[in-house]
Amino acid sequence: MAGSGVSQYNQPVKITTFHLSVATAITLLLTACDKSKPETDAAPPLAAPNTPEASLPKSPFAGLVGRWERPDGGYVMEFRSVDANAKIEAAYFNPGPIRVESAKVTNDSGLTKVFVVLRDVNYPGCTYDLTLDTKTDQLYGKYFQATQQQTYDVAFTRLK
User: Fold this and answer.
1) pTM of whole model > 0.85?
2) Which of 62, 89, 108, 155 could cross-link to 80 by cystine, CB 3.0-4.6 Å?
């Protein structure tokens, strides 16, 4: 090929059905072996009606869930969840977090009541004994300030 100006690498390649079959097989294998998770902006699927999550009974205390503020000082009580067994997850802020030792919710003669015990620095067993007023969407009741051994009337309004 010397002197012709065409090297052995510039020769046309003859593509056969065999070559196409091999290329297709390699492409399919590489695609099938790709274990990376495709990126998507789609929301996660909703629970199907017959899944255990969807069949759980809704708590009669679900109306408590949310953030509640005492207008007289900016104290915030947050009820993060309440299950059908009246187990309640609560948090308290003044303005930083104060440790909630325990919280329980009950139904007393058709009234939803919440009892919260705070146990932290300057809160050595302070308590809230509150009732939900569904008509005004307020919690009202008593706050026991343990260090002063005094009880105060208080009200919380729901933060929107």
Assistant:
1) no
2) 89
